């Protein structure tokens, strides 16, 4: 089945350009020209991916993103911004966007990023059964990760993670004990050169800490290695680590 991409932008020329290139790449495309309509379509029709402009009439992209995450709609979101203000980009990521691009952009690069994110979030084919006895399970402290089901649990409770948060947590656990630089994490989890803007990693690390650390100021799982990056450690006194 074709993946459905929802494109929300108030510039008709951009909608037409993206729709043409995405259809040529094999996607089904839905469009909206304001945030209110885009939010409604995203909730009612549940697209596989969303390209969302930051500056929109009625409801801006930041508010759309915030509303979707509050309603537990975790569709992957690529946010578009024409602004040079880095605060807008980081704010979008903090509210649950998976990626961002600055206008003007290459339509080919947009398609490439959409495909890359969808590849990393597509875990199993539709209707393919999962053998619970054979599926991979990763235990680390009080964390349990089921990669095939795209689920992670902390102290027995299902974590509500965006696709990128899940990918980052999975990569950290699979590389536990190793010091991972921000550039390494960008390359492994985002799968392309992010032009050195490593703050996207810091934002997602902060989100994960809020969900798995008792005290985010004194983390026991995701440790900061000053001047280098991050390291996933097992909490002291908890040796429950196995694959």
Helices and strands, with pairings:
Elements: E1 4-8, H1 12-24, E2 28-32, H2 35-45, E3 49-53, H3 61-70, E4 77-81, H4 86-94, E5 99-102, H5 107-121, E6 138-140, E7 143-146, E8 151-154, E9 157-158, H6 163-174, E10 179-181, H7 182-190, H8 199-212, E11 222-225, E12 229-232, E13 241-242
Parallel strand pairs: 1-2, 1-3, 3-4, 4-5
Antiparallel strand pairs: 6-7, 6-13, 7-8, 8-9, 10-12, 11-12
Give the gist of this structure.
The protein has 243 residues and is an alpha/beta fold. 38% of the residues lie in helices and 21% in strands.
User: Which regions contain 5 or more consecutive residues with pLDDT less than 50?
Assistant: 123-133, 239-243
End-to-end CA span: 33 Å
Proportion of beta-strand residues:
15-25%
CATH superfamily of the largest domain: Response regulator
Question: Helical region count?
Answer: 8
Mean pLDDT: 83
What is the name of the CATH topology of the largest domain?
Rossmann fold
Structural class: alpha/beta
CATH architecture heading of the largest domain: 3-Layer(aba) Sandwich
Can you count the beta strands? 13
Pfam family, one: Trans_reg_C
Domain OmpR/PhoB-type: 135-234
InterPro entries: CheY-like_superfamily, OmpR/PhoB-type_DNA-bd, Sig_transdc_resp-reg_C-effctor, Sig_transdc_resp-reg_receiver, WalR-like, WH-like_DNA-bd_sf
Protein name: Response regulator with CheY-like receiver domain and winged-helix DNA-binding domain
